[in-house]
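Example for tutorial group B:
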């Protein structure tokens, strides 16, 4: 029975499941929008929101925690830039300032329908775009109304 369990298992061993989630979260941070199943989207939403909150903290400890959660445990000796390094840099440089004034709810899940091959429920998970500031409207008083009745 599945009483009071925190997460889904997806019929995979623990290492495979964690690697799948880390890869999905990395793709979400890099591309800001991915298509996956509804169940996987709901699981990676939890991880992505925690990572963005770490990005908002911005200190060295938060950066190291985020790096460890993205499988980026040490710097490689070569000059090869990995997806995880790109995601980490984007998390702290772009996404954290974007969500500076937002208290959670950084992702949106849009349900798409069923996959053709196996009928799995598909969803689009995306990062909420930056809120547009409302443009200041100038109100004109009275003089701009069109005349409705013409004289005949």
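The residue assignment follows.
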């Amino acid at each position: 029975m599945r009483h009071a369990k925190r997460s889904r298992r997806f019929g995979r061993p623990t290492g495979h499941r964690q690697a799948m989630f880390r890869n999905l979260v990395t793709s979400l941070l890099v591309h800001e929008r991915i298509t996956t199943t509804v169940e996987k989207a709901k699981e990676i939403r939890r991880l992505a929101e925690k990572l963005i909150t770490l990005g908002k903290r911005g200190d060295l400890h938060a950066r190291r925690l985020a790096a460890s959660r993205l499988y980026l445990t040490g710097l490689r000796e070569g000059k090869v830039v990995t997806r995880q390094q790109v995601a980490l840099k984007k998390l702290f440089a772009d996404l954290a300032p974007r969500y500076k004034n937002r208290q959670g709810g950084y992702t949106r899940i849009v349900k798409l329908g069923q996959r053709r091959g196996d009928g799995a429920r598909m969803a689009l998970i995306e990062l909420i775009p930056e809120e547009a500031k409302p443009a200041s409207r100038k109100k004109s008083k009275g003089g701009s109304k069109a005349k409705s009745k013409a004289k005949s």
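The two ends are 82 Å apart (CA to CA). Compare this with the pattern of hydrophobic and polar residues in the output above.
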